[in-house]
């Protein structure tokens, strides 16, 4: 929508992980090196953990994008698979027919498939994303799959990507056998202030922005403060910042502009007020921010008892909807003007004929 206004040839802050926009921050570079090291080892497990939205799936997609021809890769992103479902899913990802087959049959077919690949000089790689959702028994099943071997060389290598909750799962006492097969692991941290700025500039430039003075230094600081350097949060905010700049006809975005957008975004997403950090608040602490106006009362199991709390939530929702509507109105006006201009040009050209 705002692309042509800024002279961009694509949307710079899409939420879908796109390898062509891959930005190699210190941690992303390190995680990528671990994955590549893992590939060169051709055995064991590589584990990448990271906070929500820090770029795990992006890294996996970038790796898959550059993978060598002799590796046949499959990616699984499915929560809460049982061990049997995992086997089925892995087999079908490698295009093995699993219909009406027992687990034993599927495993046999999978083994023959892996042998066949090996005889063709190829090997299989399994990338398990969102691995924090896998039950322990399923991770154990993954380990069993890594036991398929040919002359001592494993036939299937796996990478596990998951949010922080994956760490305690792998630390569990009964996961020792799995742990011993981990060849490298790495944790993705959010971007620093400088990296956040470089990340934003990189994505804008990659999308074709020529104006390298679109944001003030203060604007970058504000963006960092609001997003804590988490790439997905940066993308969400930046998309709205660019929309705001376009609607308000701004060619320079300073701290004030970012502040306006962060307030809007906070309202819509029930995020903490501007200036505070982004740590999600419990209803009780949110109540504290309202000078005691909201008397939140919790039941023993942590549920909110107080109706007032929900009223405040509803008010926030109403504000957010109002905001969204006023944006829509602004946009409609803009499109209306555009159409009028086009129509005038059309009439002029017609009368010239
Ligand atoms: N290194 C990077 N280069 C470019 N874009 C990135 C990078 N890291 C993250 N992003 C962007 O941030 C957003 C979130 O990334 P991604 O989906 O990979 O995070 P995730 O860690 O897999 O999140 P989740 O924990 O929810 O699975 C995406 O829009 C992605 O494009
Ligand atoms: Mg992900």
Automatic annotation (TrEMBL):
Gene3D superfamilies: P-loop containing nucleotide triphosphate hydrolases (3.40.50.300). It comes from the Bacteria. SMART domains: AAA. Residues 42-206 form the AAA+ ATPase domain. Pfam families: AAA_22. InterPro entries: AAA+_ATPase (IPR003593), AAA_22 (IPR049945), ExeA_AAA_ATPase_DNA-bind (IPR052026), P-loop_NTPase (IPR027417), XrtA-assoc_ATPase-like (IPR017466). SUPFAM superfamilies: P-loop containing nucleoside triphosphate hydrolases (SSF52540). Residues 271-295 are annotated as: Disordered. PANTHER family: GENERAL SECRETION PATHWAY PROTEIN A-RELATED (PTHR35894), PHOSPHORIBULOKINASE _ URIDINE KINASE FAMILY (PTHR35894:SF1). NCBIfam families: pepcterm_ATPase. This is AAA+ ATPase domain-containing protein. It comes from Aliiglaciecola litoralis. The lineage of its organism: Bacteria, Pseudomonadati, Pseudomonadota, Gammaproteobacteria, Alteromonadales.
């Amino acid at each position: 929508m705002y692309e042509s206004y800024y002279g961009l040839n694509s949307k710079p802050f899409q939420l879908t992980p796109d390898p062509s926009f891959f930005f190699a921050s210190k941690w992303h570079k390190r995680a990528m090196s671990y994955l590549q090291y893992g590939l060169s080892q051709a055995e064991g497990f590589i584990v990448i953990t990271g906070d929500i939205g820090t770029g795990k799936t992006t890294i996996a997609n970038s790796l898959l994008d550059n993978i060598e021809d002799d590796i046949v890769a499959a990616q699984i992103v499915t929560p809460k698979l049982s061990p049997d479902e995992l086997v089925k899913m892995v087999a079908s990802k490698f295009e093995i027919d699993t219909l009406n087959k027992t687990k034993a049959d599927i495993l046999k077919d999978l083994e023959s498939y892996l042998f066949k690949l090996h005889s063709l000089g190829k090997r299989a790689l399994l990338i398990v994303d969102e691995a924090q959702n896998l039950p322990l028994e399923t991770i154990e099943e993954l380990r069993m799959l890594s036991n398929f071997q040919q002359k001592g060389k494993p036939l299937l290598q796996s990478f596990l990507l998951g949010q922080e909750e994956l760490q305690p799962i792998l630390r569990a006492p009964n996961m020792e056998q799995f742990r011993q097969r981990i060849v490298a692991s790495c944790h993705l941290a959010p971007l620093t202030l400088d990296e956040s700025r470089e990340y934003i500039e990189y994505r804008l430039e990659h999308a074709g922005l020529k104006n390298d003075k679109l944001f003030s230094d203060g604007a970058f600081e504000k963006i960092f403060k609001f997003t804590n350097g988490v790439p997905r949060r940066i993308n969400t905010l930046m998309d709205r910042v660019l929309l705001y700049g376009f609607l308000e006809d701004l060619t320079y975005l300073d701290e004030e502009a970012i502040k306006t957008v962060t307030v809007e975004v906070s309202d819509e997403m029930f995020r903490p007020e501007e200036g505070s950090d982004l740590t999600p608040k419990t209803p009780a602490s949110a109540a504290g921010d309202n000078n005691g106006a909201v008397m939140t009362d919790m039941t023993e199991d942590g549920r909110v008892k107080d109706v007032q709390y929900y009223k405040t939530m509803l008010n926030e929702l109403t504000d957010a909807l109002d905001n969204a509507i006023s944006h829509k109105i602004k946009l409609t006006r803009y499109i209306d003007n555009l159409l009028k201009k086009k129509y005038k040009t059309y009439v002029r050209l017609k009368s010239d004929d």
